Amino acid sequence: MSNATAQRIITHMNTDHQDTLTRFLEHHHSLPSHLARTATLTSLTPTTLTITTTSPPKQYTIPLTPPLHPSLTDARTRLTEMDTASLAHLHNHTPITLKTYIPPTRKHILILALVALGLFSFTYPAQFHPSHPLYTLIWRHTPNLAATLSKERNARVGLGLMVGIHAAECVLMHFRKLRVLGVETGSWVWWAWMGSTFAEGLGCFERINGFVKGEVAARREGKGKGGKEL
Q1: Where would I find the DUF2470 domain in this sequence (predicted)?
Q2: Could you give the count of Cα atoms lying within 13 Å of 35 in the half-sphere of its Cβ?
Q3: First and final CA of the chain: distance in angstroms?
Q4: Domain segments of the chain: what residues?
C-alpha cells in the first residue's frame, strides 16, 4: 500500500468532503449529527477507515468489506458508494451541504421592510388614529384598514397571527431545509438563517432553493466533463 496515496486521499476527504465523513459516522455508528460534525479521517487502509471526533475525543473504525486493492486505486469509487449508501440510510440528508448564509436580495430586503412595518403596526396601534402623524403620512390612504387595526384587540390578533406564521416558517426551515442540507443546529449559519426566516419568511426559502438548483446544475456539468468523485 502506498502511504502517499493514503495520505492524499485522507487530506482530500478532510478538506473537501468533511460532510461525507459526518454521514459515515451517523450511518455506521448511529452518532448524532452534533457529535459527528467534528469527524476527521485519520487512517485509511485496504480493510479499515478510521475516523476521529474532537468533541468528545473518540476514535471510530469502519470495516471495508470487501477490502480495497492494496494500492488503494479503488478507494474513491468505494467511498462514493459508501456515501450513497449513507444518504439512502439517513433519508433526510442530501449530498449538497449548505455551509454559509446567503444575504437577501433587493426584493427580499423590501419584503423584510414590509414585515418590519407590519410588526411595528401591530405593536403600536396608536398610529392608526387620525390624530397621529403616522396616520397622516401612511394610513390616511387606507382609512378602513386603519380603523380596524386601531382597535387593540384586532392589533393583538394580527400580531399573534404574524408571529405564528413566521414561527411556523422557522420550523419548516429547520426540518425541510437546514437539517437536510447539513447545517448544524445552533451554529452561526443556523442562527443566521433562522433569524432571517423569522424576519422575512419566504425569501429565505427562495435563496436556498436557488442555491440547491445551482449546485445540482454544477454537479451535472461536472459529470458531463468526466464525473465528480469524492
Answers
A1: 6-82
A2: 14
A3: 20
A4: 3-90, 106-224
- Which pLDDT does position 226 carry in this prediction? 40
Distance from the Cα of residue 169 to its chain's centroid: 14
> 90 Cβ partners below 8 Å, 6+ apart?
23, 26, 27
Q: Is the pLDDT of residue 224 over 60?
A: no
| Integer CA distances (angstroms), 159 to 61, 119, 153, 202, in order | 53, 7, 10, 18
Q: Which fold has domain 3-90?
A: Split barrel-like (3.20.180)
pTM: 0.63
C-alpha grid cell, residue 230 = 469524492
Distance set, CA 202 to CA 180, 183, 195, 213 (Å): 17, 18, 12, 17
Q: Considering only CA atoms, which of 14, 47, 30 is closest in space to residue 86?
A: 30
pLDDT at residue number 84: 84
